[in-house]
Amino acid sequence: DNSCEFITKYRSCRRQVRECSGEADHHEGLSSDDELTPTEVTEFQKSKDNVLEDSRKIFEDVHADFCDIRKILLKFQEWKEKFPDSYCDAYISFCLPKLLNPLIRVQLINWNPLEQNFTEMEEMPWFRAIEEFGDAKNISET
C-alpha cells in the first residue's frame, strides 16, 4: 500500500513540474516509470522490502496446521467424509473463500505478473491445493 502511495505522489509531483514548465506535449498515461531517479528506486525497493519482511512475520505465531492451505483443506475434507450432514449444514463451501482469503493474499504480496520471470498463478502451491480439494469434492459428490 505504501508503494502505491509513493507512486501516486511521485506522478502528481511530475505532473505539477510539467504544468509549471509549460511542457505541452505530454500525453497522460504514456509516461514511463523509467523516469524514476535512482534515489526514488532505492526508496521504493526499501519500502517493498519492509512490506515483504512484515508479511513473513504475520503467521510466525500460528500453528503450522492453521497457516498452510493444504493442511486446512485436508481437515475440511476429513470433516466432510466423516460427518457429511454436519459439513453440509455448516455451509462450508461458502465459508472457505473467506477463510482462505488472508492466507492467499499473503502469498500474493510479492507476485507481479508484469515481471519477466513470474510464476503463473495456476502453478502456485495454494492454487493447486484448492484445485485438488475441488477435484476431491466433485469425486465424493458423484
Helix content: 55-70%
| Morphology | elongated
Uncertain stretches of 5 or more adjacent residues: none
What composes the largest sheet? none
Number of strands: 0
Relative strand content: under 5%
User: Could you tell me how far the N terminus lies from the C terminus, measured between alpha carbons in angstroms?
Assistant: 44 Å
Total of helices? 6
Order of helices and strands, N to C?
Answer: HHHHHH
Structural class: mainly alpha
Question: How large is the radius of gyration?
Answer: 22 Å
The chain-level mean pLDDT equals: 82
Concise overview:
66% of the residues lie in helices and 0% in strands. The protein is an all-alpha fold.
What does this structure look like?
By secondary structure, the protein is mainly α. The protein has a domain of 75 residues. The chain is built from six helices and no strands. The protein is elongated, with a radius of gyration of 22 Å. It starts with a helix and ends with a helix. The model has no long low-confidence stretch (mean pLDDT 82). Belongs to the GCF family.
